[in-house]
Description:
This protein has one domain: NADH Oxidase. The protein is an alpha+beta fold. About 45% of the residues lie in helices and about 15% in strands. The longest helix is centred in the middle third of the chain and has 27 residues, at about 110-135. The protein contains seven helices and four strands; from the N terminus they run H-H-E-H-H-E-H-E-H-E-H.
Amino acid sequence: METFAAIVKRQSIRKFKADPIPQDVLEKILTAATLAPSGKNKQPWKFYVVRGEKRAEMMVEMQKGMDRLGSQGINTGSARYTLRVLEQAPVTIFVFNPTSRHPLLPRDRLEVYADLVDVQSVGAAIENMLLAATDLGVGSLWICDVYFGYEELCAWLGEKGEMIAAVSLSYADHQPRPGPRKPVADVTVYVE
């Protein structure tokens, strides 16, 4: 598939088939992530691939986090829907920046700058995963609602670095319509 065609075709999939993803396909998706550009070539990413029986434990930890936040009066509405999506997907990949810490801990200015560069690098790795998945016929969903279970999921995975997001993967069980996009002219300023 041409790069631009993959960009156009990529959609956020929220209904997945239970079909497993072959290991070689998963390895290609992860390899694509590691080929992303990164500031100062730090390659600040680490991937935790959750599949099989461990998915049930992941769900329990996510639910614990939502319950904890809910008891504090925090609305976890969209995360409850995301929990159902996570339950369907046979593969969920948690993406971390292992060189950073919890996003709410204090940082000095240089740490903030470094973390901003690293988050952009990790975002590029995630986008590479999504495009590679699209090219390979695999549906994907970039998930930030995992922040509603941040502490619980990090502890469960044993990771002290900063969780950036998760990506769920499987074969799509629906074909969503493309969402509206702002025209290029509305978001671009030419400085000449």
